[in-house]
Design a protein that fits this description.
The protein has about 220 residues and is an alpha/beta fold. It is built from seven helices and seven strands, in the order βαββαβαβααβααβ. Helix content is about 45%, strand content about 15%. The radius of gyration is 16 Å and the shape is globular.
Length: about 220
């Protein structure tokens, strides 16, 4: 049976790489992004996500790749709006898509959800407290929902990349980017297609006994 996948943030970066890789596996792949995707939608808008879900119908695979870095500044200089902007996309957006698409997976007894977290959510990056906190929340969310759905046939896992060469890092301050890249023992940024290979496995039928897990892809930065 041909599977259907929906990828948020699918117009560029990790989302676009994931879409290309899943299509290579003959997965019918639908992208969602603010623009230049199959569906233009803000994941932070629950009603808009719900409308997309009605138009798309049931999917077998959900990849939550939509995300923003947000403010590059010390915690004490951040504002409430800085926090809400990032948390609404990175955390609430992930919740919105899961609430919209996972029930049909549960009903059919099979599904794969992959949430893109970050090494920042495990280690914390200086001057990126908002982004780090948001990705820690995605990790906690994944672990919780993975346990909730463990007997349903729907597996929920997360990927925690280190620095990956994507357009999103274009908004990261050069000194911050240099610092977090220096923490990688392989001394380079990862490539989107490298993350997409791991993601394709987590979305496949070959993945059958892992849920609520966090998979590092960090060039050796983290091994825990």
């Amino acid at each position: 049976m041909k599977r259907t996948a929906l990828i948020t943030g699918g117009a560029s970066g990790l989302g676009a790489a994931a879409a290309e890789r899943l299509r290579a596996d003959d997965v019918r792949t639908i992208t969602l992004d603010l623009r230049d995707a199959d569906f233009d939608c803000d994941v932070a808008d629950a009603e808009a996500v719900g409308r997309v879900a009605k138009d798309v119908g049931p999917v077998d695979v959900l990849v939550n790749s939509a995300g923003i870095v947000g403010a590059n500044k010390p915690l004490l200089e951040t504002t409430e709006d800085d926090w809400r902007t990032v948390l609404d996309v990175n955390v609430v957006g992930t919740v919105n898509t899961m609430r919209a698409f996972v029930p049909a997976m549960v009903e059919r007894g099979w599904g794969r959800v992959v949430n893109i977290a970050s090494m920042a959510g495990k280690d914390g990056n200086p001057n990126l407290s908002i982004y780090s906190a948001s990705k820690a929340a995605v990790i906690g969310l994944t672990k919780s929902v993975g346990k909730e759905l463990a007997t349903t046939g729907v597996l929920v896992n997360a990927i925690a990349p280190a620095v990956i060469a994507t357009p999103m890092n274009g908004s990261t301050a050069p000194e911050v980017l240099a610092h977090i890249t220096s923490l990688i023992p392989m001394k380079r940024a990862g490539r989107p297609e490298e993350v997409a290979e791991l993601l394709a496995f987590l979305c496949s039928e070959a993945m059958s006994f892992s849920t609520g897990a966090v998979y590092d892809i960090s060039g050796g930065r983290a091994t825990y």
